[in-house]
């Protein structure tokens, strides 16, 4: 009887000369962090200004109508996330990243010259497509480069860069709008970010798919059914419903962005109705993603050490408490405390959710699993815009915030009950 030989790493798909790790790929990793900061800045051009445009320029009185741009953005980005994951596995990461930046080119022009709300909605469909392709791809590329040991830290750095970009741009556009008007100044900043991001992605970013193949050669499945060779439908069902941890993560991501959609669309309106000035509204709009972004520099690494589940469940409950505080109080001081707490809870959750997907998903279909997770997560923008708009129209903004607080608390309880605790550290041990 002939002995069965064990295939070498090269035979199993490993690439010669490829090293995994943050230190080994520091230059390319740092470049991708910078690129994702620009992705976040492209989104941040809207956070302060667009809710005010809806009322002051286009005279949209109903919250549901005003939030149509977030609904459009969320649906487009959710679909683009799924496409990004599938195409990244099929064609490579870099082409998807470049196409995402190309898609963003008309967005600032549409926002500047729109003479009807329909053009604003169209701009956000295009922006959602761009954000789905670019942000998803930078996530996957960093997972590729770092490998399994420091995935939480890598996701913390990625998401910190993106949301600090959102925060810095939200703050800057608030000041620009107060000095020069709602248009065109704030959106010229977005145009500059798109040009720089496209140039860096074309000229300096390198393909990372071969790093994923190298990791796959030595990968040991962490849960039943997570082996190599799964088809698109199997990956979708596993990530969405069948695997306890992946499905818990997917629903938590959706609820997280549900409450972010509420914050994006209604918080500036709530603050303006209370008589706050544009620069103070800009501060509140910026502090939330700033705490969220900076906090991820710590929370991603903490999840490598202490596990994913405690940070996700605890972060959802802290978000719920923050939303309850904002709903129950009024004035710059209490709202500042609320958005700081909301940012801290989101920082606990956001990079940890992505790292948890990477813990369970096999490298050969990890990009697709990330795409499915981000499909559900960014679908939360659409659900949040529709739900909060309908409740705000019927009962007022504080009632909408309170309902979303309850949903967020329930999501944290689902994570605590359903997610496998051992998944938290399997890949970082």
Automatic annotation (TrEMBL):
Major subcellular site: membrane
Protein keywords: Cell membrane, Membrane, Transmembrane, Transmembrane helix, Transport
Cellular compartments annotated: Cell membrane
Species of origin: Sinomonas cellulolyticus
Keyword Membrane assigned: yes
Superkingdom field: Bacteria
Membrane-protein topology: Multi-pass membrane protein
Sequence ranges assigned to domain Major facilitator superfamily (MFS) profile in this UniProt record: 25-423
Protein name per its UniProtKB record: MFS transporter
PROSITE patterns reported in the protein's UniProt record: MFS, SUGAR_TRANSPORT_1
Taxonomic placement: Bacteria, Bacillati, Actinomycetota, Actinomycetes, Micrococcales
SUPFAM superfamilies in UniProt: MFS general substrate transporter
């Amino acid at each position: 009887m002939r002995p069965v030989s064990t295939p070498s790493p090269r035979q199993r798909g490993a690439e010669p000369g490829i090293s995994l790790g943050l230190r080994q790929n520091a230059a390319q990793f740092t470049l991708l962090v910078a690129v994702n900061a620009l992705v976040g800045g492209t989104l941040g051009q809207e956070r302060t200004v667009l809710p005010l445009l809806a009322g002051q320029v286009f005279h949209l009185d109903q919250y549901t109508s005003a939030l149509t741009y977030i609904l459009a953005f969320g649906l487009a980005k959710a679909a683009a996330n799924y496409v990004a994951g599938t195409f990244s596995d099929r064609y490579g990461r870099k082409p998807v990243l470049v196409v995402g930046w190309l898609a963003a080119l008309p967005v600032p022009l549409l926002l500047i010259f729109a003479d009807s709300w329909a053009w604003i909605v169209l701009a956000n469909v295009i922006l959602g497509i761009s954000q789905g392709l670019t942000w998803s791809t930078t996530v996957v590329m960093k997972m590729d480069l770092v490998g399994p040991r420091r995935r939480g830290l890598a996701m913390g750095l990625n998401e910190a860069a993106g949301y600090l970009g959102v925060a810095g741009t939200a703050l800057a556009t608030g000041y620009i709008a107060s000095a020069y008007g709602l248009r065109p100044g704030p959106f010229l900043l977005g145009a500059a970010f798109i040009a720089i991001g496209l140039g860096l992605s074309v000229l300096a970013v390198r393909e990372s798919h071969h790093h994923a193949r190298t990791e796959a050669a030595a990968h040991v499945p962490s849960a039943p059914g997570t082996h190599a060779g799964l088809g698109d439908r199997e990956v979708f069902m596993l990530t969405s419903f069948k695997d306890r941890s992946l499905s818990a993560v997917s629903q938590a991501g959706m609820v997280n962005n549900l409450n972010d959609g509420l914050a994006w669309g209604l918080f500036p309106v709530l603050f303006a109705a209370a008589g706050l000035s544009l620069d103070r509204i800009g501060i509140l709009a910026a502090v939330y993603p700033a705490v969220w972004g900076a906090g991820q520099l710590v929370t991603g690494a903490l999840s490598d050490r202490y596990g994913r589940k405690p940070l996700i469940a605890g972060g959802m409950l802290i978000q719920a408490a923050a939303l309850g505080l904002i709903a129950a109080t009024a004035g710059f001081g209490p709202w500042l405390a609320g958005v700081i707490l909301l940012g801290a809870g989101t920082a606990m959750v956001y990079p940890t959710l992505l790292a948890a997907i990477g813990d369970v998903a096999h490298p050969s279909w990890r990009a697709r699993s990330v795409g499915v997770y981000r499909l559900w997560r960014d679908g939360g923008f659409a659900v949040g815009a529709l739900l909060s708009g309908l409740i705000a129209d019927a009962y007022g903004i504080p009632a909408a915030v309170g309902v979303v607080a309850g949903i967020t608390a329930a999501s944290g309880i689902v994570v605590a009950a359903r997610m496998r605790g051992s998944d938290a550290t399997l890949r970082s041990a």
